[in-house]
Design brief:
251 residues, alpha+beta, 3 domains, four-stranded antiparallel sheet, 10 strands, globular
Length: 251
């Protein structure tokens, strides 16, 4: 079982801030729209839509918003049509970065991604340039708050449910599974009243690059912030980790 990660804690705090600001609702709505458009409006027959709806509910997205997004996606050919893209590149210090996009204008988004990378000390790469450094995994976040069991007990429950790995953070547990096993693990945890914050198929770095220089770390995080703030960006993945010599308070 993997251990504590400064960058994971910072990401979690940033996600909560984005949720408070309402930024997350736009990304969640787009995921629901695309899921409904590609797989149908019935979540019982559309796993991607089912997960998108559950994640939206966990983020306290209003039910009316969720239903509107489903209806918009189900109305094939009506309204905005989103295209899913993935960009690859490097950040300061050669850090690998993957960006998942949903856009209604491929050319505009490509130009803006190139600008964001360049402005923040990185460069956009070709398809496949860094993708080989990541592996697709199921990723489930569980809140420690309200969880009525010890860390050791929770680890045992996660393993018995089918988890491959588990990371312990300040406020959450992060569970990793094979992509095809994620729904079983998620459902097993829900059946035991375990509070799930988010479940999704993510790209996990095969190895991490440790950053110990504070200025370089701030540049990398600034690039990631700029990418995540872009309306077309759904997720950003990276392979860097903050050194134990750095403090989370510096960011």
């Amino acid at each position: 079982m993997a251990g504590h990660s400064k960058w994971a804690n910072i990401k979690h705090k940033k996600a909560k801030t984005d949720a408070i600001k309402g930024r997350i609702f736009t990304k969640l709505a787009r995921e629901i729209i695309v899921a409904a458009r590609t797989g149908g409006a019935d979540p019982s027959a559309n796993f991607r839509l089912k997960i998108a709806i559950e994640n939206a509910k966990s983020a306290n997205m209003p039910n009316d918003n969720i239903q509107r997004a489903i209806q918009k996606g189900a109305g094939a050919g009506e309204g905005t049509s989103y295209e899913e893209l993935r960009y690859e590149g490097y950040g300061p210090g050669g850090v690998a970065i993957m960006v998942d996009i949903m856009t209604d204008n491929r050319n505009r988004t490509a130009s803006e991604m190139r600008y964001i990378f360049s402005k923040n000390g990185g460069n956009l790469g070709d398809t496949g340039s860094v993708g080989w450094m990541f592996t697709e995994k199921g990723h489930i976040e569980v809140s420690k708050e309200g969880l009525k069991m010890t860390e050791d007990d929770f680890m045992l429950v996660a393993l018995e449910a089918g988890a491959d790995d588990l990371e312990v953070q300040e406020e959450i547990y992060e569970i990793y599974t094979e992509p095809g096993s994620m729904e079983k693990v998620r459902q097993d945890l829900l059946d035991q009243s375990i509070p799930i914050i988010n479940a999704s198929i993510n790209l996990i770095p095969n190895n991490t690059v440790e950053i110990s220089d504070i200025d370089q770390a701030k540049k990398v995080i600034k690039l990631i912030d700029s990418l995540e703030s872009h309306d077309d960006v759904q997720k950003v993945y990276t392979n860097f980790e903050l050194s134990d010599s750095l403090s989370e308070d510096d960011f």
